Amino acid sequence: MKEKITSYQFLAIMFLAPYGTASLFFTTPETKNDVWIALLFYAFTSIIIQMIYVNLFNKYPKDSIVTYLPKIYGKYIGFILSVIYIYFFAYDAARGLRDFTELTSSFALIRMPVYIIVSVFMIIVTYSVYKGIENIGNMAQMGFLIVIASTIIIYMLLFMTQNSLHFESLFPILHKGFIDVISKGWKLSTFPYGEFVVMTMLYSFLLQKNELKKTIISASIIEGISLALNNILFIAALGYELASSSDYPLLETLRLVHIGDFLNRLDIIFVVVLMLGGFFKISILMYASVLGISQLFKIKNWGLLCSVLGIIISITSLIIAENNPEHINIGWNYVLVYFFPFVVVIIPLLSLIVYYIKKFIVGIHAPTK
After folding, report:
1. pLDDT digit string (tens) for 7-20?
2. Where are the domains of the chain?
3. Which of 121, 155, 233, 319 is most exposed, with minimal Cβ within 10 Å?
4. How far is CA 304 from CA 130, 251, 279, 293, in A?
5. What is the 3-state secondary structure of 337-348?
6. Under a CB-based contact definition with an 8 Å cutoff, are residues 290 and 309 in contact?
7. Model-level pTM?
């Protein structure tokens, strides 16, 4: 029996997929203290891009992006494009794993060998993927509430900490104009919002398909507001200069919490919550990649696929860069610029155009009665 997920589970999965790592960083430092405006703008832009995905899905309601691309482009070109998406999901999972390995080894398990952290983390993720999307969806429902609640708690604790927040750091707003902010923040359309493309692998699992558009719009708006509030918090607590230069501004912000002599150093506690976000992100991306391999190559042994891909993702995360600065530099200046736009926007848009061209040509050559 094919697995199914509810609209709420779909929303929770969609929210957690990019939020897992996006919540860690000060996104697009080029936009400076207007980053929150860029985040809100590109959240709405992402909805437009996702309507392309939905339009394609409506043409092939029983398929994922991996299985309908060969139907649009033909056996050979479609196969190559499908493999690109499978690779994209696995590679993004490896990058996410590296992010959280660096986080854990820097703040919690400092003396623990990195390969052990990676191995333990991926064993849990692999088992989750093996159990299926319904299992991930059930956990995501709780994970979504935990992440939202933790954000509210962080704000409350910082408000209770004297002189920790300075909202005047947000000013001046749009001092170089709206167009300047949007042009400098264009990478947000690829990360974090471009990672919504992973949901194209899950559209067919949705029970209430008539609610797909509404769920996508709701998740995108919630994502945008949550990330905007996160970055407002970074600026108000740390200032733009420190927030943009810190590897993990969220944890630097949490270190400011100091209530009496008993409530401090909450960054260690919240590492657990952040790891929860990482678990969901990597699980969703790995599931999409395993599902794509299963669909494209007609491999039925799900457990074997999960195990092999889990090992490949683990090894890739370790060799992807020599250190964290190199890892971030590769992601920010190369992957988001040259790889993500191709997968997130160009292929889906071209696919929709090719579909309509083929339909038009078939219509012209169709015999008239």
Report:
1. 999 999 999 999 98
2. 7-365
3. 319
4. 9, 37, 20, 11
5. HHHHHHHHHHHH
6. yes
7. 0.94
